[in-house]
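call fold(seq) -> tokens
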Amino acid sequence: MNLLTSSFAVLALSCCAPAIHSQTSTPPASSAPDDDGKLARISRWWSDDWTAGWDTDSGWRVLASPYTYHYTYNPAHTRVYVLGLERQRSDGLMFGGSLFRNSFGQPSAYGYVGQRFDRMLGVDRLFGQLTGGILYGYKAPYEDKVPLNYKGWSPGAVLSVGWHLTPTWSGQLNFLGNAALMFQFSADLK
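ret:
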């Protein structure tokens, strides 16, 4: 089995196993206290039924990025354009995808799952977001610009911080590793 097939199998199992487990297992006789540590909270998060909650209080979000600032100058850099779509639940769980032209002018895509953290630091308009998924598009001669690249496929992760400009519109800064800072605008389509 090649690397790409193995990666998709692992991703599918990691997404489906928690839902299957939560539907087939019985709850424990006594529940653990809420303050039992980070590892237990992470374990409960993975065992949650991810299939529930998508039909109520969830919405679509469209996003675009007009500008990306690169931390270091490279004459091969071109403008980066991004268009994307996300589906978000009220508890912050999300999945989405974006199509973009990478820093070297190559057509690229990013498919991801993630978590949104509303009201960061107790500020109603401030939010954070962490996503992880599959990145495609960095091909020769730029395949070494992203880690673990295999024929244009690589893992990806994006850490973001954003501000709600209105109840519908928001601005967001996406930290793209040690390479760049992306400015993004989003609109909720609830």
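The chain has two helices and eight strands.
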